[in-house]
Amino acid sequence: MQAFNEHIAKDGFRLRGTAMSRIDGFSDVVFGFALTLLVVSLEVPRTYDEFHAAILGFLPFAVCFFFLLLIWRAHFRFFRRYGMHDAGTIWINGALLFAVLFYVYPLKFLFYVANGRHTNDNVFTNPYQPREMMIVYGLGFAAIYFCLSGLYLNAWLQRKSLHLNPLEVVLTMSSATDMVGIGSIGILCAIIARILPPEHAGNAGWFFFLIAIWSTAHGFVSGRFIRAARARTAPEDLQPLPHGS
Length: 245
What we know:
The chain has one domain (17-238). It is 67% helix and 0% strand. The protein contains eight helices and no strands. Helix 1 (22-38) runs parallel beside helix 4 (87-114) and helix 3 packs parallel to helix 6.
């Protein structure tokens, strides 16, 4: 079996960041803290009513946990691909972690309301607050994916020093444009929430389903460029990187 540091990703990208770094450790702490903020309650229920309330909060927690897991996976994939520790990566990664911590609050609140445990009359005190909630959520979502895109663009700018082969260059740009597209949908939802009447602003959330359409279309188009790049990449440039790269 190949050692993990010689592993080639399924898409052909040679992994450069197989060793744990201080950026990885710090980032995992922040992601762990963000998950802690999502926990329904840190105390063990003492009555059945408290237990029942905790159970009702499990579904929103599960959805929020899944969303954060997707973000962590994208973060993990980037640092395993490139293993970058330059100043630009550190600052962009810092902005990403800040956005994640900010995003936790509108994310949890949105699904707390959507779970139906409370009526809108109990949660919102004026008709403009649902609009503001959707705008904040959309902007927080966009900020995360724009930061992920920034990480990939920074890697693309350093493609020569990273010794990226033609396939890896195309995969890098493909990932960057994918993240830009997903983040733009967050901006679109925030704009639609601002345009819609306040009482219908929550319907802007349905536009997040455009992510599936975007990802499918992007995968179809970028797949052609990736296959072409793979064909023109020399076989020796597809071999695992030596230990310590």
